[in-house]
Amino acid sequence: MNWSDRKFQTAVLLLLISILAAVILLGVLTEDEAVDKAAYVNLERVFEEHPAKTAAEQTLNQKAAEYQQQLESKAEELSGTEQKEVLAEYQQRLQDLESELLASVTEEVEKVIKETAAEKKVKFVLEEEQVLYGGYNLTDDVLKKLREEW
User: Fold this and answer.
1) Which residues of 54-84 are buried (b: 16+ CB within 10 A; e: fewer)?
2) Hey, which CATH number is domain 32-149, 3.30.910.20, 3.40.630.30, 3.40.50.720, 3.30.70.260?
3) How far is CA 30 from the centre of its chain?
4) Which of 4, 18, 37, 49 lies 20 to 30 Å from 146 when distance is taken between CA atoms?
5) Which segments does the entry list as coiled coil (predicted)?
6) Does the reported pTM lie above 0.90?
């Protein structure tokens, strides 16, 4: 084959064009839209505005009032050391309840962040404090979804 042959030049050109078209087509078909998308969430704001926060606070306040009444009624019958032990027991119960409520809210927030990120085709989600520049603020979207589910 001779490079000056017109048919050979046309065949090489068509081959190169078809290879280039195949590469472009494969790139378009397999492109992950979320590869470069990053977002951030202001977790402090999410927890502050979470609808479950009020319910959790009410539950804790009710339990604290209940334990205080029980302690006051038992305190008359108990010595100082026994009163301290009962008080420590009630405080531990309140801490356990608080931890349980916080864990359930945290779990729910993580689930909603993952769902919202998937809907927005976001690959990475960071805490707002960790972001220096760029990214999409996902906070409002997460809060909206939490309110809808509540």
Assistant:
1) eebeeeeeeeeeebeeeeeeeeeeeeeeeee
2) 3.30.910.20
3) 27
4) 37
5) 57-107
6) no
